[in-house]
Design goal:
Layout lengths: L2 H5 L3 H7 L27 E12 L7 E11 L15 E11 L4 E10 L5 E3 L6 E5 L9 E5 L4 E7 L4 E9 L4 E2 L5 E3 L7 E18 L2 E16 L7 E11 L4 E9 L4 E9 L6 E3 L5 E9 L6 E10 L4 E7 L5 E3 L7 E10 L5 E9 L11
Antiparallel strand pairs: 1-2, 1-13, 2-3, 3-4, 5-6, 6-7, 7-8, 8-9, 9-12, 10-12, 11-12, 12-13, 14-15, 14-23, 15-16, 16-17, 18-19, 19-20, 20-22, 21-22, 22-23
Length: 372
Amino acid sequence: MTTSSLLRPALAAVLLALGGDWEVARPDYRWSFPRDHWAHPAYRTEWWYFTGHLAAEGDSLPRFGYQFTVFRIGLLPQRPALRSDWSATMLIMGHAAVTDLRTGQHRFSEVLYRAIPLLGGFGAPGDSLIAWSRPPAGTDGRWTLRWNGAGFDFAMRDERQRMAFALGTAPRRPLIFQGPNGFSRKGAGETAASLYYSFTRLATAGTLTLDGTTYATSGTSWMDQEIGSNQLGREQVGWDWFSLQLDDGRDLMVYGLRDSTGGVSWASGTLVPREGAPEYLVRDAFTVTATERWESPETHAPYPSRWRVSVPAAGLDLDVVPLLADQENRSALATKLFYWEGAVQVRDRAGRVRGRGYVELTGYGTGARPAF
C-alpha cells in the first residue's frame, strides 16, 4: 500500500482533530530574518506560497500563470519515543500549477509525503535548502525550495503532467508584514490568527517546460509565508483571497473568511504603497463583490468568477477578471481537496488594464472545507 493511500482517508479528519501542545500565533512574536524563512515545527501548519505571471522570451505580454506552494502539516507536537528515522511528526505537501494563457490549458501537480528520509523534509536555518520532497511517482529528481541569499529559488517536475519549472527570484521591494508585526487575525477568538509576511513583488526568471518544449521565462511573482495552529474557526468553511499588483506601483491583498451560509465572518487586507509603510485595512475599508459565477465540470463546485474590488479611501474601484475560467486544482492524494487558484487581470471601471494578480478560493463545494 502506498504512502498516499494510507494518508488519504484520514488526512482531513486528523488535521481537524489534532490539538495538544501546538504553539499559537501571538502579536509579540520576535521575528528574525532570514531565519524565519525556514520551518517552524512548533506550529501545526505553515506554507510557502508563490504565484506569478511569466512571459516567454520574445513575448511582450505574460503567457503563463504559475503557482508553487509547499505545505508543512504537523501531525504531532513532539517526536514519539521511537528510535527510528521513519517516525514522522510532519507531512510535506506540494502543489504546482501552470496556466498556459495561449492554449487555455491549466495543469496541476501535487506531492504528499511523510517528512522522513528518502521522502521529504525541511532544512535547518543556515542551510540553503528550506524544503524538499520526492517528485510524483514516475518522475526522477526532487521538488525543492531554497533561499538564495536574497530571494527564493524553487523547482518541480511531473512527467505524467508533462510540466516542469525551475525559477529564481529576487525582491523588487522589501518584505512586508500582513498585519501589525505580522500578526494576522482570522477571527474574534484570541488564538484565531496566523503569523504572516509577504514579498509582494519578486523579479522572477528561469525555465518552464510543457510537453517537451522549454521556454526561457521572466516576470513578477508574489510570495507569502503563513504560520499558525488555529487558522479557521468551527463556523468558517473557507476563504476568498486576492493578491493584486497594480501598474501604478501599489500592491493590494484582501481576504474574506466565509461561514456556512456564504457570509463573510472575518475580512482584512493590506495596501502597499509605492514607497512607505503598508496600510492595514479593516473590514469596512474595502468591499469585494462577485459579479459572475462558474461551476466546475469536475467537482460541480460553484465559484465566483469575477469581482468588483473597491477601496474607496485609496481611490480604487477595480474589476478583477479571471484569465481562464477553469483554474481549479483537484487533488488525487488528499480526499475532497480541491480549490480554485487562478491568474487574473485587473481593470478599471472603463475596462482599461491596470494590473495583474492571483485569486484563491477555498471551501466551495460539498465537503470542501480546508483542513488548515
